[in-house]
Design goal:
Blueprint lengths: L1 E5 L3 H12 L4 E5 L2 H10 L4 E5 L7 H10 L6 E5 L4 H9 L4 E4 L4 H21 L2 E4 L2 E4 L4 E4 L2 E3 L3 H12 L7 H9 L9 H13 L8 E4 L3 E4 L9
Parallel strand pairs: 1-2, 1-3, 3-4, 4-5
Antiparallel strand pairs: 6-7, 7-8, 8-9, 10-11
Helix pairs in contact: 2-3, 6-7, 6-8
């Protein structure tokens, strides 16, 4: 999991970095709100840990701007002022959680896991499917990645939805033809490869984290790590 920590106190940065890296998180750091907002918009992070009191742009403004631009990345706010009013304000600005600063690492790790788990459950129940920063609205047939709307044809959407409902599972061309196109396998057709290529150009182009992977000799899989060749 890739986490962006936006914090200006060296001691807090050191504590969180050391603590979370023990849990195999990949941590990037920004030390002011302006740089933090820029990094959050230009990169694919799975979660933000955001201090409320920051130079340049405070944490509440960073949170609000991201939400106004359509970002649904989970955000945990940190503040040394842990009053009910401040917690309510933070949540109203779009944060998912609010913790006292400096946070206990065990509690922070538990809350990260809870937010991730809750996000997956909410996505399914609300008609949304999510793969990393890619969001698929089943009801409106819309797709958004990193805040940008992606236009798909009906067939492209159907293929992407199938993958999203079956993340981390490898499918052969035969299985995809039968499941997405409802066709019997024909050795002469390359329709699966063509549409995989279409999706890659629209979904993965320009993003560091690739979602659609080729498993040589087996087929295709959608997942967020880089264990497979993306060719």
């Amino acid at each position: 999991m890739k986490i962006l920590l936006i914090e200006d106190e060296y001691s807090v940065i050191s504590t969180i970095e050391k603590g979370l890296k023990k849990h195999s998180y990949e941590i990037s750091v920004a030390m002011d709100g302006i740089m933090g907002l820029k990094m959050a918009k230009e990169n694919d992070f799975d979660l933000l840990i955001l201090d409320v009191m920051l130079p340049g742009l405070n944490g509440l403004e960073v949170c609000q701007r991201l939400r106004n631009e359509g970002s649904l990345v989970p955000i945990i706010l940190l503040s040394s002022i842990n009053t009910i009013a401040n917690i309510v304000a933070g949540l109203d600005y779009g944060a998912d959680d609010y913790m006292n600063k400096p946070p206990d690492i065990s509690e922070l790790n538990a809350r990260i896991k809870a937010i991730t788990r809750r996000g997956k459950q909410a996505s399914v129940s609300s008609g949304l499917l999510r793969i990393a920063d890619l969001e698929i609205n089943i009801l409106s047939k819309t797709v958004i990645r990193a805040g940008k709307v992606i236009s798909l044809t009906a067939t492209e959407f159907r293929l992407l939805e199938f993958f999203a409902r079956n993340q981390n599972r490898v499918f052969s061309r035969v299985e995809l033809l039968e499941s997405v196109w409802d066709l019997d396998f024909n050795m002469g057709t390359n329709v699966v490869d063509v549409y995989i290529n279409y999706l890659r150009k629209k979904i993965d182009a320009g993003h560091e984290v690739k979602l659609i992977h080729t498993v040589i000799g087996m087929g295709y899989v959608v997942k967020t790590d880089q264990l497979y060749e993306n060719a």
